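Tutorial handout. Part one gives the primary structure; part two gives the three-dimensional structure as tokens.
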Amino acid sequence: MLKIIVPYHTLQTDIGFLQLKQAVIHIDFWRVAFFTHVFTSLFVLFAGFTQFSKRLLKSKPALHRKLGYFYVINILFITGPAGFIMSFYANGGIASIIGFILLSVLWITTTAIALYKAIKKDFIAHRAFMIRSFALTLSAISLRAWKVLFAAFTNIPPMDRYRIIAWLGWGLNLIIAELIIYNLIKQRKIKNLRYQTEAGII
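Part two.
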């Protein structure tokens, strides 16, 4: 991701992905949204990864919370809205546009709910929504991974590939997240049942 982001530090508008966006690069709010999204996404990824470290949570809970707030604020007020704006100008037409709009809305929503659950000290639900949120954050990586795989192993035309990836890049992530959450709930129920059995409650 860092390798992808670094070339944009010059703010040139005719490099990398921007070569495909010359039709909209003149739109000021789109251009601001693009560079904002690019330069803040790496920090979101880093902060998100730290939230799943049990060692950090146990040894430095204050740091865990600070990084968590950084992750949430970034998505809710900076990176998420920037991605939402960009969604309306996605390559591939209406199919891609709808896919990226849904990604942005779900990303912001799951993150906001995760924050709300943490404030309410419902940490089980907080964890579940953070898993969903970070699964969507990881679309920054999976979108590019699918792009490479489709280009290498299929003959699907570029724009058709882009339309597929606009949904697959985050949809599969979310399915995997739900499977992880389901497995955690199942494990918790088994532990509770074992505890109740050993304690003679049932």
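Part three, for discussion. The chain has one domain: 2-198. The longest helix spans residues 158-198.
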